[in-house]
Amino acid sequence: MTDVEVAIVGAGFAGIGMAIALRRAGIDDFVVLERGASVGGTWRDNTYPGIACDVPAHLYGFATHPNPDWSGEFAEGAELHRYLADVAAAELDGGRLRLNTLMQGATWDAEAAQWRIELGGAEPGVLTAAALVLACGRLTEPRIPAFPGLETFAGPMFHTARWNHDVTLEGAHVAVVGSGASAIQVVPELARRAAHVTLLQRSPAWIMPRGGRPFTDEERAYFAEHPGELAARRAALYAEGEARFASRSGDPAAAATAAATARAHLRAQVENEALRDALTADYAFGCKRVLLSDDFYPAVASDAVTLVTSALAGVDGDTLVAADGTRVQADVLVLATGFLTLRQPYAALVTGEDGVTLAEHWSDGMTSFASTVVPGFPNMFVLDGPNAALGHNSSVLILEEQAAYAVRALGARPGYPGGVLRPRAEAERQYTDEIAQAAASTPWMTGGCRNWYVDRGRLTLLWPGTVDAFRARLTRADGSEFATATADASRGEL
Question: In this structure, which topology does domain 150-206+251-335 adopt according to CATH?
Answer without folding.
Answer: FAD/NAD(P)-binding domain (3.50.50)
